Amino acid sequence: MCGIVGYIGSKNCIPVILEGLKRLEYRGYDSAGIGFIQNGSCNVIKNKGKVSLLEKKIYESSYSPTIGLGHTRWATHGEPNEINAHPHYNTDRSLVLIHNGIIENYQTLKISLQKQGYKFVSQTDTEVLAHLIDSFLKKGINLFKSVRLALAEVDGTYGLAILYDKEPEKLVVARKGSPLVIGIGEGENYVASDVSALIAHTSRVVYIEDGEVAEVYSDRFVAKTILDEDIVKEVHQVTMTLEEIDRGGYETFMLKEIMEQPESVLNSMRGRLIYEDGTAKLGGIDHLLDRISKTKRFIITACGTSWHAGLVGEYMFEQFLRIPTEVEYASEFRYRNPIIQPDDTILFISQSGETADSLAALREAKRKGALVLGICNVVGSSIARESEAGVYIHAGPEIGVASTKAFTSQLVVLALITLVLARKRDMSLVDGRSIVNEFLKIPEKIKRILELNRDIEKVAENFKDSKNFLYLGRGYNFPVALEGALKLKEISYIHAEGYPAAEMKHGPIALVDENMPVVFIAPKDSTYEKIISNVEEIKARKGKIIAIASEQDEHIGNLADYVIKIPDTIRMLMPILTVIPLQLLAYHIAMKKGLNVDQPRNLAKSVTVE
Ligand code: M6R
Questions:
Q1: Statement: the pTM of the whole predicted model exceeds 0.90
Q2: What pLDDT does residue 470 have?
Q3: Ligand 1 centroid distance, CA of 458 (Å)
Q4: Does the active-site annotation cover 605?
Q5: Does the pLDDT at position 264 exceed 90?
Q6: Which of 242, 276, 295 is the last residue of a domain?
């Protein structure tokens, strides 16, 4: 959710922090702020809205501090205005603090602090932390210890960074439930909620774990647990490059990421397919294959787009493995005391690897003794690290808030897992090889679909003023209908619903009239005849029909108002293709409405609060 960045060293920290905040803006953009120490005292500059506004405000001043921190906010407690923007001060303004997460017992703490005379200026839960830490500092306790003592009283989640003008040679950071990394430089160090904010400066990072607090100096850092135990931290080398997180000439990150899919999908398969054996090799789960292939039940747990990928995974696992598979919203799974057996395998799918509900569900599953596997994009993320084993999707950094290339890469990895396990169970070599061949053709087929970009843009032109949309699909393409509707909702703010096509008759058809666009995902597969009947039903009620159809379909053009024809593949892999026109359709509708597709309102890329 919120983005955190900090610097300590010998150069002016303001450009470093502003640049880091711009890279983190996808995590939240309700307000932005920077705090620093100069001439022995703390200062804060902040505003409602984007980092670009903050930048203007800062460059009207003449500060050049060498220690500071910055924050870009996705509001939870308190409306997105300047007062609630981070950083927050303590009362005498000797301390500034930024926070990502939610302090659940902030009301109780606030009342107790008010009784001690503390005055609050914001509506945030975060301000409580500034005063709580202050209450320990006032007793003559140093900052590092005061933070640990304060956090011992806190329920909830936090990634925190703090400055204190009486100890101006350090930043203190802490983590519980919200990601934090330290970037190691030469005579300078960085902190951030996300590696992408640091890689312009260093590729050496230290991941702070839950329950850990660190003092970061310009030339070293010291980490402890909240309970004051010493810990030794490992320095990791990250491979992400700056080019990967730039727009690369595209107008938006979202378009860049849609267009990257031939490459990102290829990267998800690269080095993994083995044609001779009609299978794949997935290093991350290789050692567990015997156990996984004998699992009695799969549970796939995720949120949002990753949950939609999980639904496609259910079709794959049940078709090829004949193992019962359930797909759960992580937010429901974590709280409803799920029945988990020792021979269940639970897969957690998450692009960011930091989604709070998915991470909490993973911990709950581990507590109950299940085999827990992660399918993540962000290397070294919490879900990736806390899973027993897993498979990276290798889609590359995804910055656009609307997930696109991560979805197609998640589908590739789920299909690879299916292939590996099916070959271990009862799939023949011949069938395995023909699936490998289909995999290999996918990147080229995606390229052909992307060539339809202009045609899809023309279709979009007709729908930018629509108020509602229906997306209908069957079988493997039912989750694609959900994903198409989600894409449209989140970036164009048009109300859209995804349904299994046959379910439409049980209610949603009442919505259909000449103003209702209905997107059918209708490739020529075993459900084709059925879905054509559904198309007829919509046509009879004058709905506007947009069909995603197979190249060789000569019939559907007689029924649909607009047809987008795409290449075919086997059913299991078809969602990787059918979703792409839907991503482009949503994209162009939103752009024609003049909206910011990379930073849609109210959203954040990675939801690290409940
Ligand atoms: O990082 P995750 O895959 O765990 O994120 C899950 C959802 O928050 C995410 O897919 C969200 O729904 C996207 N904005 C969809 O485009």
A1: no
A2: 96
A3: 28
A4: yes
A5: yes
A6: 242
